[in-house]
Amino acid sequence: MKRSWVPPTTWTVLGASAMTTVGILPVFLLSSQSVFVRADLDFDERRFGVAVSAFFVAAAASVLLGGGLVDRWGRRTSTAVAGLLTAAGGFGVAWAARSWLVLTVAMVILGVANAACQVTSNVTMAKVVPPHRQGLGFGVKQAAIPLAITLAGLAVPTVGALLGWRWTFALTGFGGLAIALVSLRLPSATVAGSRPLGALDRPSTAALVTTMIAVSLASAAGNSLGAFVASWGFRVGLTPDVAGLLMATGSAVNLVVRVVSGHLADRRHGRNLPVVAAQMLIGAAALAVLSFPSEPTVVAAGLIAFAFGWSWPGLLLYAVVRVSRDAPGAASSYLQAGAFVGGAAGPALFGAVVAASGYETAWRVAAMLFAVAALLVIVARRMFIADLIARPPVHPIGYGGGRKAPAYTTPPRRLAQTGERGSSGTSTVGDASS
After folding, report:
1. Are 176 and 261 found together in one domain?
2. Would the pTM of this model clear 0.90, i.e. be above it?
3. Is residue 3 a part of any domain in this protein?
4. Cα separation of 71 and 369, whole Å?
5. Which of 347, 275, 365 lies closest to 311, judged by CA?
6. Which CATH number is 221's domain given?
7. Would the pLDDT of 370 be above 60?
8. Are residues 55 and 148 in the same domain?
9. Burial of 213 (0-12, 13-18, 19+ CB in 10 A)
10. Where are the beta strands (DSSP E) in 272-345?
11. pLDDT computed for residue 163 by the predictor
12. Domain total for the chain?
């Protein structure tokens, strides 16, 4: 039997990244080809906005209502469901969308499919990738988001120009079928999948909700940056080519920083949430500077905002999954819901502020959102740690930083049951982090 040159962990990370890309790609395909889609189906910008929002609203609702199902179903079933939903939505747009209403229904299906893809890939990373490689793995996985934006842009002059915009969605449908076929080779259940959903050991709901709000605010600011920085650059004097180059360079640097942040996370035991908060604060400072109408300022601040202010999603996801106990699907669903809500609402609110008060005010409001999100991440950090101390998980978790060994480790569950406390049970709240 020939030995594969690619380690199993690498295949897992690449598979999760591919699922992430396929899940989020349809909304970027719709945005990049909006002119052709609207001309073919004969509807205006308002209805186009509704179709895009329907994707994110469906994703947010389904990830909150059904995210925990992935923990119960196991990888095989959830992967199959994600693939079949993606295929149904992709082929629905390609072959059945002859009106705005049918297109919107198909985008709702694709939104649900995206939620299934994201949560399933998160659970796959948490269950299969070794703990000492999960930081890098989540960094690579979340780098799939800027990759999807790039692919959507390339689809216009290639597949779209040669075969028409419908075929770009048909390829998404074939991608969904490929995911469903891959599911046939996966184990039929996981350890958690064999247990009732209510019996799973879950992290603090209050901490997850706090983190979800932080993600919503930070995603609103980050998505506004991606949606409006080119228009702002053109307004202050940059040529369209330079503004486009600024976005492309910023996205490329962002991809690298996401991967490097994950790699560095694997070299320490926890203390990831303070790094996330620092990245958000750098983003806040960069957006505040970006509000000054100067070409050099916009270029420099824009690159910093892309590179660091929008580099936290993978690291935050990894930090929360580390303390998710038996329920990585349910835990990550809160983060994904926050990202979907922020992605849908952020650019719309930013545009409203621009119309009312101008770009300068809008950038400063976005900077405030980043700053508040950073504060909430620190609050959530303390809540997660307090929960680890009050309810030690079945499997001990190391946290609080440290290179060779964690600064703190949760005590065995039996200590909590007898009322005893480990050495980390009295003084870690202010000194440790996820």
Report:
1. no
2. no
3. no
4. 32
5. 275
6. 1.20.1250.20
7. yes
8. yes
9. buried
10. none
11. 83
12. 2
